[in-house]
TrEMBL record:
Name the UniProt record assigns to this protein: NUDIX domain protein
Pfam families given in the database record: NUDIX
InterPro entries linked to this entry: NUDIX_hydrolase-like_dom_sf, NUDIX_hydrolase_dom
Compositionally biased tracts (Acidic residues): 119-131
Lineage top rank: taxon: Eukaryota
Disordered as annotated region, ranges: 107-131
Organism (species): Metarhizium robertsii (strain ARSEF 23 / ATCC MYA-3075) (Metarhizium anisopliae (strain ARSEF 23))
Domain Nudix hydrolase: 34-187
Length: 243
């Protein structure tokens, strides 16, 4: 059983409730996904990397890359954050230690697509994932319910494991066949350093990952700005060149 995780003040209260409660206050959504972004620092925020997973050849969106995540339900998850933790554990084997801040939450209803046929409907569902990297959502065609609007909440998570160069990620091979650490430059370019293409699940997913990098760098900059005053206070207002 997973150890309890802690939650930062930056996490909205709505994510501490059940998925059904989140959806009931957002009637423009029918279903909810929860995803986790995990970063590891490599000589500063500019070289930070995030964990990406490649979907299995036999699954939907085959061989496309994404962050760990999946659907939530009251049956499995006591809260939306519990869904983030569960999906991270199931898809990577990593344990969530602290929920840090959100990257994407849908708060407004995007327009319903108006396809001319089923093929166009399915294609639009794949490509439409919101106009704002902070408000990621997507349409999906369901045989029973027609077009269904999903909301997707992404949370930056600190994990229990040491994220050094050792192999700590354990995949569920039914869902993913590869994992890798990606820099912001690689995500922006859509290519790994060796030139191999990185094809993301959707453009909206790609934008959301870039937004996660932006927020990570922004928070790292703020921490650096605070380090100076902290050290000055610690050492009586005198600079210490030995630090």
């Amino acid at each position: 059983m997973d150890e309890p995780y802690t939650v930062s003040d930056a996490i909205p209260a709505c994510l501490k409730g059940r998925p059904s409660e989140f959806l009931s206050s957002r009637p423009h959504l029918q279903r909810l996904m929860a995803a986790a972004m995990v970063f590891r620092a490599r000589q500063g925020a500019a070289a930070a990397q995030t964990l990406l997973l490649r979907r299995a050849p036999s699954d939907s969106y085959p061989l496309r890359w994404e962050v760990p995540g999946g659907s939530t339900s009251d049956r499995k998850d006591g809260s939306v954050l519990d869904g983030v933790r569960r999906e991270l554990r199931e898809e990577t084997g990593l344990g969530a230690r602290r929920m840090l801040y959100t990257v994407g939450m849908l708060e407004e209803a995007p327009p319903m697509p108006t396809p001319t046929d089923l093929g166009a409907e399915e294609e639009e569902a794949r490509n439409d994932e919101g106009d704002d990297a902070r408000t990621v959502s997507f349409w999906e065609f369901d045989q029973r319910h027609g077009m269904v609007r999903w909301g997707k909440v992404t949370v930056v998570v600190d994990v229990d494991e040491d994220l050094g160069d050792g192999s700590v990620v354990r995949l569920d091979e039914r869902e993913h066949d590869r994992w890798a650490w990606a820099t912001r430059a690689e995500v922006e370019a859509g290519r790994w350093a060796d030139g191999e293409e990185i094809r993301f699940v959707t453009e909206g997913s790609w934008r959301s990952i870039l937004e996660g990098f932006r927020l990570y760098a922004e928070k790292a900059d703020k921490e650096r700005e605070m380090d100076g005053p902290r050290l000055m206070a610690k050492f009586g207002g005198k600079a210490n060149k030995g630090l």
